[in-house]
Amino acid sequence: MPAIDSTFFQVALPTQLPVKKMHDNDHPRRRARTMSSTTEEIDSSIHRPGSVKINVKGAFIVDPDLATPRSGTGSPTPRETSDIRLPNHTAIVSHIAIDIGGSLAKLVYFTREADSTDPGGRLNFQNFETDRIDDCIEFMKHLRDKQLSLNGSRLAELSVMATGGGAYKFYDKIRDALGVDVLREDEMECLIIGLDFFITEIPREVFTYSETDPMGFVGPRDNIYPYLLVNIGSGVSFLKVTGPRSYERVGGTSLGGGTLWGLLSLLTGSRSFDDMLDSAAQGDNAKVDMMVGDIYGTDYGKIGLKSTTIASSFGKVFKKKRQAESAAEDSGGLLGEDTLPDQDGFSGNDISRSLLYAISNNIGQIAFLQSQIHNLSDIYFGGSFIRGHVQTMNTLSYAIKFWSKGAKQAYFLRHEGYLGAVGAFLKRQPMNWGRRGSLEGIEDLYEVRRESLMRSAASRRASEAC
Predict the structure, then answer these.
(1) Which of 107, 113, 180, 265 is deepest in the core (most CB within 10 A)?
(2) Cα separations (Å) of 339 from 268, 314, 319, 351, 388?
(3) What sections of the protein cross the membrane (predicted)?
(4) Angle between the 390-404 and 273-281 helix axes, to the nearest 10 degrees?
(5) Is 50:430 a contact under the CB 8 Å cutoff?
(6) DSSP state letters, 197-215
(7) What is the mean pLDDT of the chain?
(8) 387 and 257 in contact (C-beta within 8 Å)?
């Protein structure tokens, strides 16, 4: 990773730029800011121009009690995400960012400290169910109006950075409702930028999880690459990352958060994702799952399986129903609903925990297999599926540790659901650089600047020779 200034975080940009031949009637689009006499100096001068700078000096995660409050119907769920205080960032921020997935829309925006003489501000985090996108847009309108009022900005100076599938699905709706530019950014690239920012710049953000050490914070490292990012949203993507803008989607699965949400909506009375997680926390999956102990009566030590290891998810359901049917037949009664186990036999809490384990175990094993194929030892889990839920993190962490025999490490983040939104937020460019608000097409801009500088340098050397 290119060296990062200890005070400012910048989006890392490509370092190798193709050079196109300029024709005599071609003119550079803007003046070069610096003059260099050698190719090496020219390359250095345009290596990392003008990307958005966030002053992260002294940054810290705000105490949960002081985090962004909820704001009515359709507002964030009870699991609040702590804001990030940026005490030394004083520049005006005229954009907000949103990552709209299949289940949730995640919003990131910067605010000044209200009624405070202290400089700086904070990054705020909110989420909305995608089905209630209109509530999210209303909240964005409020942010727009506040920005216009506090900073004296003009409407033309404001913009929304959008990523995720909803950036395309709801593009017209957001643009028409807010009356500002909506700039769509690549989802996978935003995930990487957001994760790199959290890993390198925010203290006490990344942690490991185990039953003995629930939150072991990880300090900064000189080199974070390569790694595997497992992004768990409605579905799951596995990304191999070898550099700031060097990544490959190496796999995925459709069995993700949307699967849990959908099946539990059918099987239980839960109607929100957080209700489902709360329900799972109170359940006992052993009443639904068939365990190794149910088959062997004890551990299967020869292959390292404890008696409490799940042998078959939902494996007891069919068996219990067959037992009830047999009992009804033996008693000569009519086979009907009354002869089957009542709701207490398969409680919503037990079902929720069983399904959560089933999906988490599946994701954990696929993550391990992908890390084996690509020789990656560091595995980061992101996405709104996790939500700081103890059972989920424990299952994923245990799966990686078990299958790798301790050779690989699972990492989690306190802002795991906001990687894409933060990445989109950081991709906002100053107005005089390329397409306003994006890195798209930046390579063409580099070529123009490079060739302009080289022509100017050549002209100056010719003048000095005379």
Answers:
(1) 107
(2) 20, 20, 14, 20, 40
(3) none
(4) 70
(5) yes
(6) HHHHH-TT-EEE--SSSTT
(7) 78
(8) no
The sign of the CA dihedral 314, 316, 317, 319 is positive
pTM equals 0.75
pLDDT of residue 429: 52
b (16+ CB within 10 A) / e for 199-219: bbbbeebbbbbeeeeeeeebe
Domain 207-417 CATH assignment equals 3.40.50.300: no
For 340, phi then psi, to 5°, come to -90, 160
CB 107 within 8 A of CB 128: yes
Tokens of 197: 């920012």
Distance CA 396, CA 416 (A): 14
Cβ proximity of 371 and 377 under 8 Å: yes
Check whether 202 has a pLDDT greater than 70. yes
Contacts of residue 427, Cβ cutoff 8 Å, sequence gap at least 6: 11, 52, 161, 185, 189, 190, 193, 437, 438, 439
Give me the phi and psi of 105, to 5 degrees please: -110, 125
Question: Quick check: 184 and 163 in contact, CB under 8 A?
Answer: yes
Phi/psi for 80 (5° steps) reads: -75, 145
- All residues at 6 or more sequence positions from 90 whose CB lies less than 8 Å from its CB, including other chains: 55, 119, 120
Structure tokens at 142: 């409020």
Domain boundaries, the chain: 8-51+443-465, 207-417
DSSP-assigned states of every residue in 258-298: HHHHHHHHHHSS--SHHHHHHHHHT--GGGTSEEHHHHHSS
The token pair at 229 is: 């990012």
Q: Do 269 and 338 contact (CB within 8 A), yes or no?
A: no
Cα–Cα distance, 105 to 164 (Å, whole number): 9
Alpha-carbon distance 98 to 155, whole Å? 18
Ranked by mean pLDDT, which of 35-44, 76-85, 438-447 comes out on top?
76-85
- The one-character DSSP state at 300 is B
Maximum Cα–Cα distance for the chain, whole Å? 113
CA dist 318 and 320 (Å) reads 6
Map tokens 């909820």 to a residue: 70
- The model's pLDDT over 345-400, given as tens digits with 9 standing for 90+, comes to 689 999 999 999 999 999 999 999 999 999 999 999 999 999 889 999 999 999 99
Angle at 183 between CA 151 and CA 191, to 5 degrees: 100
In angstroms, the CA 255 to CA 365 distance is: 13
